[in-house]
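Sanity check

After download, print the first record. It should look like this:
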Amino acid sequence: MRCRLFLALTVLGACSFFSTAALAAKRVALLIGNASYSAASRLVNPSNDVNALAEVLKEAGFDTVRTEVDLTRSGMIMALRSFEDETANADIALIYYSGHGMEMNGVNFLLPVDAKLATDRDVEDETVTLDRLLRSVDRASRLKLVILDACRNNPFLQSMAHTTATRAVTRGLARVEPTTANTLIAFSAKAGTLALDGSGPNSPFTASLVKHLVEPGVDIRLALGKVRDDVMAGTGNTQEPYINGSLGGAVIALAEPGQVLPQALPQALPQALPQALPQALPQALPQVSPPQNGKAKTAPAAEVDLAALAWARIADSSDIEALTAFTRLYAGSDLVAKAESRIASLQRSEPTTPSLGRGLIAAAKKEGSLNVIALPRDWCGYGGIIDGFKQKYGINVIELNPEAGSGDELEAIKSNRGSSNGQAPDVVDIGLAFAVKAKAEGLLQPYKVAAWSAIPLAAKDVDGHWYGDYYGVLSFQVNKDLVKDIPRDWGDLIGSEYAVSIALAGDPRSSNQAIQGVFAAGLSISNGDVSKASREGLKLFADLHKRGNFVPAIGKRASLAQGTTPIIIRWDYNALADRDALQGNPPVEVVIPATGVVGGVYAQAISAYAPHPNAAKLWMEYLYSDEGQIGYLKGYCHPIRFNEMVARKKIPADLLARLPPSEAYAKVLFPTLDQQAAAKAEITRNWVGVVGAKVE
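Expected C-alpha cells:
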C-alpha cells in the first residue's frame, strides 16, 4: 500500500534560474518504481507513477529521464551509482522513488523488491537509506530534488523479529530536517499521518505532482503549494502535504517561462479515458515545435488551462468513470459543474440492466452449476437472489458453508485449487480488506460487469478483480416507546432527554462496528475532517459518558426491547432487520444521521481457480443488474448502485417506503483501508483513557 510520499530538494547558487545561462541548463532524472516484492504485498501504482512523471519531465525538456522498475538492492545501488556520474555536470538532478519504505530509530529506509527483513538487524543490510539517494544528487550545481513515494505502513512491522529494545521500528517514515544549506524537504502528508492511494492509477499526490511540478515559470515552492491545495481539496482535507527547510530568494522552476506543455496532462485522467476519444486537441492551442536538443520551443508567454485541455478531450464522452475522474482531478475548476451535469444526464439514460450476450449464457448453462460460499439465505436477501438466479437461468447453485467468514472463503480457494471435489468456490463475498489481500495473492480473476461504470470509483478495483456489491451505514436504532424526541444527528445525543440511553453494538476496543460508530460521530463533529474524526469521536463519547447518557453495555435487540439500551448505534441493515423481527413490540425507528454518514462495503469477486468461470461471470452480471441490486435491498443491504438507481427511479416505491429516506445515503463516506486502520489504532488505544468506560 502506497502511503507516504515526500520529496527533498536542495538548491545551490543565488543567481536566478532564468538567467541566460539557465536556458542551457542540463536537467537529469532517475525514476524508480518498486512493486513486485517477494516478501511483502505487491503495490499497484509504482510503474504508473514512474511512467506518468517520466512523461511530463520529457515534455519539460529534461535532457535525460531514466526509468527503472522492480530493482533489487544491488540493482538500486548500481542505478544510483550510474546516475551520480550523470549529475556530475548537471544543473538540476532529480530522483523519484515509488515503493515500500520504513523507519527505524529515526532513519528512513527504502525497500528493494528482494528485501526479506526477517529481523531488525537485516534492515541496514537489505535496504537503501534516504541519505544514499540524497548523496546521488549532491553533485548537481543548482537544484537537487528527491521525490519519495514510499509506504508509511511498514509491511514488515508485524512479522519482523526484534532482537533488541534499542531498535525502535515504528509505523511510517520519520520527519526529516535538512542537514545542508538551501535544502527544502516536502512531505505529501504530515509526519504521523497517512497519504491516500486514491482510486485511479496514481495517488492524489502523484496526480497533483504531474499536474503542477513542471508548470512553466512557476517557482518550485509555489508549485508545491499548489500541490498541497490540490491534494487537500481532492481528499476532503484528510491529507495535508508539509514542507520543512528553506530556499533562497531566486526563482526556481523546472520548466522555462513561456514554455507550453499541452500534452503534460495528469496521467491518471488519460488512462481512465475511453480509447475511442479523439486525440486531436483544439486548434486554438498554442503551437509547440518539435524539441531541439532536448528543449521544447514554444510561443512566448502563453497561458495553458490544463482543466480546459482535459475537458476538451472528454466533453462528449459517455464514460461516467472518466467524467468522475475529471471532477476529482480538477475539483477547483468551473468545468466540474459541466462534468457533473453530464454524469447526471448519462445516469438517467444509461441502460444499466443490459441484455447479456447469448454466448455467456449458453456457456454458463453448459457448465450447469455455480459454487457460492458464505451466503446465509437470511443475510442481505441472498436467499431470494440465489433462487432468482436459478429460476432465471436454470443453473444449479451449490451453497457451500453458509456461515463461513471472509478468511474462510479465501482459504477455500487456496485449499481447493485444481480440485474436483466440489468444494472450490466460484465466487466470494468478502470484506474490503480481504479483497485487496486476495488480489495481491493472485486468488482472484478480473472481470468487469456490463454495469461497471455505474459502480463508484471508490468501491472497485481498477482492473476489475473485485468490486463492492452492497454496504451498510451506521444508524441510530431507537425504541420509540421510550424515546419520544428522536435524535437526528450525532450532536443531538448530548441532550439530557437521552440520559442512560445510548449504547454501541460492540466493544470499541475490539468491535469494528463500534469503532466505526465512534469514527462516524467524530466525522460529524469535525465537519467531515477524516484526520480529526477519531479524536473528536472519542471526545464526544467521553462527554456522553460524563453526562450519563452513554450506557457501557453492548446494545442488542433484546436490550433495545427491554429498554436498557433504547438507542443503539449499529449498521442499518441489522437495525432494520431487528425492527421487522420485533413486529412493533416495541415500535422501532431507524435513523441515518444528518452528517457523519459512514458506510462499510463488502466486495464480490471471481476466484482465479473457479471451476465454473462462465457461470461465475453470469452470477456477477445478475448481482449488478437492477434485479440483483434490488434483491440486496430487500434484505436491507444497500446495493452499491443505490444512489444511481434512485436517480433513475428504478427502485419500487413500496421497498423505498420500508427504508430510511434515500437522500440520507447520498453523502455516504466509505473510509479507505488506511483510514480504517488509523481509526482502529487511535480508538482502541485511547478509548479507556479518554472515555473511561469499559463496555461489556
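If your output differs, re-run the checksum step. Summary of this record's structure: The two ends are 35 Å apart (CA to CA).
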